[in-house]
Every structure is written in C-alpha cells, then in structure tokens.
Amino acid sequence: MLSKPLFKGSGVALISPFTENDSVDFETLEKLIEFQIENGTKAIIVCGTTGESAVLSEKERDEIINFSVNKINQRVPLIVGTGSNNTKHAGKLSERACELGADALLVVTPYYNKSSQDGIAAHYEYICKRVSVPVIVYNVPSRTGVNINPETYTRISKFENVVATKEANGDISSVIKTRALCDKSLDIYSGNDDQTLPIISVGGIGVISVFANVCPKESQQICELAGKEPEKAAELLLEFQGLMEALFVDVNPIPVKAALNLMKFRCGSCRLPLTSLSPKNLEKLKNELFKHNLI
Question: Rounded to an integer, what distance in angstroms lies between the CA atom of residue 58 and that of residue 93?
C-alpha cells in the first residue's frame, strides 16, 4: 500500500465521447477533462465501464490514454481501466497502460467465467507481478457475476501494488467486514454514488463516481463534508439523490451520456449493444437536470 492514498475524495469515471461517425471525439474529451479539473475532481478514470471500455479497440484505448496523459499533465492522477475476463489479456492491457503513462490501474474482477475466490486472487496476483503502478481492485458483481468476499480481500491486499478497491457490491455490511479485516492495508472507494457517505463513515476515503460527470463540484463536496460535517453531507446527498437515480434509469453509461449531451458537451451516442434512452426515461432525466439548473 502507498504511504498516502492515491487520491482522497471524488474521482470521475469518465465517459468516452464519440463523433457522429462513431470515432473518439478528442475535442470533447479535452473539454470534459478541463471541466473535471476546474471543478475539483481529484482523479480521472478513463477506459472503465462508464467509458465503454468493452467496445473500444486497442488502438482507441491507446489513443485515449495517451491523449489524457498529455492533457492532464499530472494535475490529478490518471487511472486507466485495464480489466478483462482473460487474465493474460488484462495483464497485457495493464502493461500497455503503464507504458503510456497511467498513474494507476482500475482492474475489474474477471467476468462471465464466474471464477472461484482462489481464481479471483490468482487473477490479481498475475497482474500485479507485471506492473509497477498502484492497482485499484473493482468489485461490481451486478455486472461481473462474481463477488469478492471480505476474506479474499485480505489475500489480495497483500499483493504489492494493490492499494485500494472500488467497492460496488451494494452491501454495507460486507464493506464494514472488509474494512475490519484489512484495516489500513486497503483503501476503500465507493463504487455507488448513493453509498459514498455510508462508506466514508466506516473508513472509506472517497468515490469513483458516475454522478461526477455532470456534478463534479457537488460530488467532491459530499466527500469533503462526509468527514467533517456528516449532517451537511447527508443533506447534499439527499438533495441530489433524484439525479443520481436518474443517471441509472437505464444501463450505465446511457443516461449519463444523454445528460452530458443535454448539457451541450456533444458526447455522441453509446455504441451498440447499448442504445438510446426511451422518451419516458429521457423526460425523467431532463426534469432532474432542470431541477438543478444544469440545463
């Protein structure tokens, strides 16, 4: 584990903007990066779930990473998603991200294969032996079909390079047990915006956020207030609960990309097999954005 956290507060799981002809829109990507940094985001995560990593070619991944490294220019940590259900491929993606200048890696559990807890631990051990930058484990069983048990975290946290987890299993009791077993050997980031406050209250240090795509300042404020004035943090969280819910009214990142388009960021559509919001869900999203003066 690092002597100090990779970052504390709100890190954004950034979308990947596309042009009308479905190529990566680097002009918009630059605007999104600057919007995040100007509004206090503490880390930028590219090529993750919200960045539609599953439909990016390796060439596009390289271009996004290289562009982000240069534009961010060490102002905040750049974290790159390098997960795969193929352990060797995840290792190669991780090595490549390091070569291109990533400050850290976000590595989701192997999905679809439904590996055992031993397999999950071996997956991370393999990757950690091949990289020299910090690794954040990403546990999101609703997408992957597997969950990391608290006891398995004690094994994974001993691997050199593993510094934190993005925990999105939705189970606060499990998070508490992981925190108790791992103590200071593993930092915990919330992977669900609506659980940022409870996770920080039991020792978590921040969030890797979808909500921050549209409200970076407010996401960071919730994190800052959580440790100092939890009642005010709760008030702010509850104020934006409706918007957070609307950002998941369909599969991520469909709603958040629609929200950014409504905010005039020109992010394009999601790639198939993801499609557009239904008229009903789009109206719900518009109402929440209008309520908070975002459109």
Answer: 9
Asked if residue 45 lies in contact with residue 77, where contact means CB atoms within 8 angstroms, the answer is no
Sign of CA dihedral 29, 30, 33, 36: negative
Residue of 124, 138, 153, 189 marked active site: 138
36-80 tens-digit pLDDT: 999 999 999 999 999 999 999 999 999 999 999 999 999 999 999
Q: What is the largest CA-CA distance in the chain?
A: 50
Would you say domain 9-228 falls under CATH 3.40.1280.10? no
Report how far residue 47's alpha carbon sits from residue 56's, in angstroms, rounded to the nearest whole number: 8
CA distance 20 to 164: 37
Question: What is the identity of the amino acid at 225?
Answer: L
166 catalytically annotated: yes
* 163 has pLDDT over 80: yes
Q: Which of 8, 42, 124, 166 is catalytic?
A: 166
Domain coordinates in residue numbering, the chain: 9-228
Token reading at 59:
């060439």
Q: What is the mean pLDDT of the segment spanning 217-227? A: 97
